Amino acid sequence: MEILQTIWTALITENQLIINIITVPMIVIETTITMLLFTQILNVVSSRRQKITYVALFSIIATFSEFCMPSPYNNFINIIAQFALVSIIFKTNLLKTILCIILPLVIFVIAGSIVQIVFSWIFRFSIAEVLLIPIYKFCLSLIIYVCVYVIYRLFRHFNIKISLFDKININTYSILIINFIIGILAIAVQVYVVTMYALTVPTVILLTNLLALFIYFAVSIYSLLRTNNLERTKQDLEIEKEYNKTITGLYDSIRGFRHDFNNIVQAIGGYVSTENIDGLKSYYKDLLVDCQRVNNLTVLSPEIINNPAIYSLLTSKYHTADELGITINLEMFLDLETTNMKIYELTRVLGILLDNAIEASNKCENKIINIVFRKDSKVNRQLLSIENTYLDKDIDTDKIFEKGYTSKEYKDDKSHGLGLWEVRQVLKRNNNLNLYTTKDDEFFTQQLEIYN
């Protein structure tokens, strides 16, 4: 009985040793709940091994900073460590990594602030005093963890996930990052106010401050997402504009075929009746060129080229080449939404390769560019092949990737000779990419290989 009395006395009086003992499991619990929150809310794809690794490593770092670093510097260490671990272990981009930190933090701060305000109001203790009494700190922390875990279960039960942040333009992306950094500072101030002045400052003021913080995040995110939707609508209108241009060309071509159909049939009949096979072959070859142009315009559809950025780029380059009298033969046998390469980098590489192909083929008498997107299931890769006619048969396929290398025509212009060098830099940053360059008597070929 005396032992129990001693333990109870230690729990209800200030005892830093017991506080330190219960802090360790609390860090593990809080880290686990935080991880569950951001993987659910932000739809972070993760394995069991990744989750365990994150919880174990961050718990060790947080425990070290808690006992070896003075407050509030330990909080900065924890934020930096969390940022590094999330980006490395879960391989998230910059914005999603920041959100993985800030969203659970906001939920913990809001739930914790409400619980702390109610707790201090009921027991008439300052939070500073509560945190030094083991039984109070344990109960306070446990209530906060239960509240946050209930929030997590609600998100999971209703399958609430935020995926809008994955499809935003670069301007909104930058604004969101700045906004969330300011938000982290606001949260830090909120934590300080609740911790230090929960008893002296009126409860109404604390609740108002908490409500203002919540409204700030809600309104900011809502406004930015509306702006992003407007930008995407603008992008969709540009795509429709390009598509209408393609449809107009296709319509005119079909009208031309319909108008000349009788003439075409009669011309073929003339070759057949005279048994002029050589003439028929030549006529058929010219007819096939026009048919291929109609087929290419049919392929230039947002439903077939199912990525807005790639579609806009291909249609732009197609019409540019068409105005120069270059024949582009396009074949699309790939779902671009499954491409195992960042679309931003893919558009950069594709744009550079197409610009080079247009420039080279434009100098030829026979101006042809063949573009093929396809999937090679045998070796689990995706292929993008661009081949074009060219004049310089002595071109060095290794030297063209050197920085500043270009033809003599531009030797004094430093803006040239960087395209393929930039492509090489993209390849170096991605270990699943390869660019295979070949040439023959007719075509110069660049084949981009994207491995899973």
Structure description:
With 452 residues, the protein is of the alpha+beta class. The protein folds into 2 domains: 2-201, no CATH class; 300-451, Heat Shock Protein 90 (2-Layer Sandwich), CATH 3.30.565. Helix content is 67%, strand content 9%. It is built from 13 helices and 5 strands. It has a 5-stranded mixed beta sheet with strand order 1-2-3-5-4. β4 (433-439) and β5 form a beta hairpin. The protein is elongated, with a radius of gyration of 32 Å.
Query: Major sheet: order of its strands?
Result: 1-2-3-5-4
- Count all strands and give the number: 5
Structural class designation: alpha+beta
Radius of gyration: 32 Å
What is the helix fraction of residues, given as a range?
Answer: 55-70%
Topology order in helix (H) and strand (E) letters: HHHHHHHHHHHEHEEHEE
What is the domain total for the residues?
2
Task: Supply the key terms.
452 residues; alpha+beta; Heat Shock Protein 90; 5-stranded mixed β-sheet; 13 helices; 67% helix
Secondary structure topology:
Blueprint: H1 2-12, H2 16-41, H3 48-68, H4 73-89, H5 94-123, H6 127-130, H7 134-157, H8 170-197, H9 203-273, H10 277-299, H11 308-323, E1 327-333, H12 343-361, E2 368-376, E3 381-389, H13 419-429, E4 433-439, E5 443-451
Parallel strand pairs: 1-2
Antiparallel strand pairs: 2-3, 3-5, 4-5
